[in-house]
Specification:
Blueprint: E1 5-6, E2 31-34, E3 37-40, H1 43-51, E4 54-59, H2 65-77, E5 84-89, H3 114-119, E6 122-130, E7 133-134, H4 136-143, H5 146-151, E8 158-165, H6 172-185, E9 189-190, H7 198-202, E10 212-215, H8 226-246
Parallel strand pairs: 4-5, 4-6, 6-8, 8-9, 8-10
Antiparallel strand pairs: 1-3, 2-3, 6-7
Helix pairs in contact: 2-8
Length: 248
């Protein structure tokens, strides 16, 4: 007899991982529940289920500030029991392409793929500002998601955005909105930061109701402040909590 696979063995916070099974696409006869945990008869069913508790964080970072925010957002995601952050980056683009980007970056998070969008329980986008808009590499990735738009891969999933700019009025809110607009076209449920987050009222260097943010300075060397850190984690936590509730 084949030994069943315990789902919580793959997660650091197993206490409520079974909740998402109710909205998953896994057939009930592919596994069973015992003592508030899930057991699957084969590895593939277990992996498909676990992917559905992932919050996908896709970002582009030139100087490292957006990457730092992405890791803070990921920490917030993993503060929600049963949820996991899947960090992904996008490759740079240029007007003239001489050499194709490698399939795996030299450092940092792996590059995002369409499969990540299909498998995730929620999506959070991050980008520096480019004249009040998201950076071209992230826009290029979004522009390749026509098949996922047609299939409704993100319909009904919570989604949010975060950014970093050089100056306080460098286009933070318009950059965040530029990332939220395609998410609306994809049918995602937009998640922001409410003013019940005390840090949103106190912050002087990043954080908006449209999403988490950071003012990095003209040399991109200003450390992320305590309030901005709190708000970045709060954004990840909100998206993950909503995804968990939608899965119950």
């Amino acid at each position: 007899m084949t030994k069943s696979i315990k789902a919580s063995a793959f997660r650091r916070k197993p206490e409520s991982i079974f909740l998402l099974i109710l909205k998953s696409q896994i057939k009930m006869d592919s596994g069973f529940r015992r003592n508030d945990d899930l057991y699957f008869h084969d590895p593939q069913s277990c992996l498909v289920f676990l992917a559905m508790s992932d919050i996908l964080i896709v970002y582009y970072s030139r100087t490292g500030n957006v990457a730092q925010l992405a890791r803070l957002v990921a920490r917030g995601v993993e503060e929600v029991p049963g949820m996991h952050a899947r960090l992904r980056s996008v490759p740079p683009v240029a007007p003239v392409t001489e050499t194709a980007a490698p399939p795996v970056p030299d450092e940092g998070a792996p590059y995002a793929t369409p499969a990540d969008l299909r498998e995730c329980a929620g999506l959070i986008l991050g980008s520096p500002t480019r004249f009040g808009n998201m950076a071209a590499p992230l826009k290029h990735f979004i522009d390749t998601t026509g098949a996922e738009w047609a299939s409704g891969a993100l319909v009904g999933k919570p989604a949010a955005a975060f950014t970093s700019t050089g100056t306080t009025h460098g286009g933070q809110e318009s950059t965040l909105v530029s990332m939220l607009l395609p998410l609306l076209h994809h049918g995602a449920l937009i998640v922001g930061l409410p003013y019940t987050e005390a840090a949103l009222n106190a912050t002087r260097a990043g954080g908006t109701p449209y999403g988490a943010s950071h003012v990095a300075g003209l040399n991109a060397d200003r450390a992320i402040g305590d309030d901005a850190k709190i708000l970045a984690r709060a954004l990840g936590r909100r998206v993950a909590a909503i995804a968990a509730k939608l899965g119950t």
